[in-house]
Amino acid sequence: MPRPIQHRAAALMGWLALLVAANLPAADPAEDEVIEMAPFNVTAYHGKIPIIDGFTGRDYRGDNELVFNFAQSFNQLLIGYHKQLVLDEIKHLQYRIKLGREFEREMGQLSGSFGFSRFALDNSTWLRRERAIITRLIREPFFKIKALVAWDLDRLEKIAPLKPETRYAADIRYDPGTGRWERRITDRWDVIFFRDARKRRNSFATEKVQGLNLDTQRGFHFIERGLPVDVTSDAFQDVKLTYPIFYSEHAAGEKELRYLQETFVANLTYIYDPFSWMARRDTRFRGGYIRDCMEHVGAQRIYVDDRAWFDEVLARFLSDVVTIKLQGVGEIYSLQLVQQRLHESPRALGLGLDLLNWNRGEKREAVERAESEPRISTGSPAGFRFVMIDAYQRFGEPMIAAIRGRLLAQKELRQRIGGRAMLTAVIEELSGMPYEEFARRAKRVQEAALARHRE
């Protein structure tokens, strides 16, 4: 049996604290946001960033102030983002560890009241990938920006919709629909390591290919296969790319500079997210640890006939009760819609899917379904879940007590009953109306609640 999350979480919290303490200077707690970046090894972002003229493919020889001012701020923007990426992730992991500890405690108390055995989260592989990524981030960056590619927008406008005949032109295009030129980045993340490093045997390799429209922030990502839990911090290969910018002799003021800087940082949040190897931050560690809850309920002696259906519904219900107590019911609705959108567009990067097939030979394909309205089918365990949520929001603890009482009574009698029939009877008793009528009302209310939490 895995160690309880209290012990493992304490060890992980200690590791995170040591990681920060070993790499950050001492600071007043009130000044966390002004921690210096110097202890991080970001020498890759020191010195002048090379500037290439997109039209010639050679060093930029122009004198546009916007180009030079942006180049001067480029490294500081990268360093600032790199620092924030590390600190934000550490805070995120600390929060999830704390929440996991609270969830295990609350779930243990709730399931224990049903006469179930002790509940413990299986976190034997928890955070191992994140730890490898954070260790790499502190030692050195993933991204190595080779150069800025400066494009004279006035010259591009004169030849639109044609493109210049240089190799850097693959990352720009003229969109006749908007009448504007657009930029993109495409890159490839490679991961490779040997489990027996001395003999270079038993290797693991995978890749992630991604791209982003730098002006619309719509893009794609394809992950060949996910990371194993034993991935090492040195398994991640450098990601090398160039970053295109547009400039004009007629617009080179503070407003234009701020636009380039702000969009650069905004784009980094999508293209430079090493934690997306597992899942986006808005899904990682969320969901009430449902797999652990289902395994826990499935291991109990419960006197119902329809165990497959009932176990899923009861595990979801207990998990949802704890989630509502710790985070509020909005967490359930929000995550449901995030997961729905990921299912509809699993390859999307950023604000939407754009496969960026701008050049001959580029034929990326991916499923992209239109965003659908929230719909609940009360006949399935997934739909019945929301009927249970609706009932719990109305009746609270008496509902839990009613279910618990009936299950304990059947256990005492050692007689099996229909699990679904028992739950519908509890709802009818508490609501004072036929189950079908209650379910219709619950469906309408819960679909409206889901729609309000669309992200």
Note down, in words, how this protein is organized.
The chain is of the alpha/beta class and about 450 residues long. It folds into two domains: about 5-180 and about 235-275, no CATH class; about 290-325 and about 375-450, no CATH class. It has helices spanning about 5-25, 65-110, 130-140, 155-160, 255-270, 290-300, 305-325, 330-345, 380-395, 395-415, 420-430, 435-450; strands at about 50-55, 145-150, 170-175, 180-195, 200-215, 220-225, 240-245, 350. Strands 3-4-5-6-8 form a five-stranded antiparallel β-sheet. Strands 1-2-7 form a three-stranded parallel β-sheet. Strand 3 and strand 4 form a beta hairpin. Helix 2 (about 65-110) packs parallel to helix 5 and helix 7 packs across helix 9. It is elongated, with a radius of gyration of 27 Å. Residues about 1-40 have low confidence and may be disordered.
Itemize the secondary structure elements and their pairings.
Layout: H1 5-23, E1 51-53, H2 65-112, H3 128-139, E2 143-152, H4 153-159, E3 172-175, E4 180-196, E5 201-213, E6 218-223, E7 239-247, H5 254-271, H6 290-298, H7 307-327, H8 329-344, E8 348-350, H9 381-395, H10 397-413, H11 419-431, H12 435-452
Parallel strand pairs: 1-2, 2-7
Antiparallel strand pairs: 3-4, 4-5, 5-6, 6-8
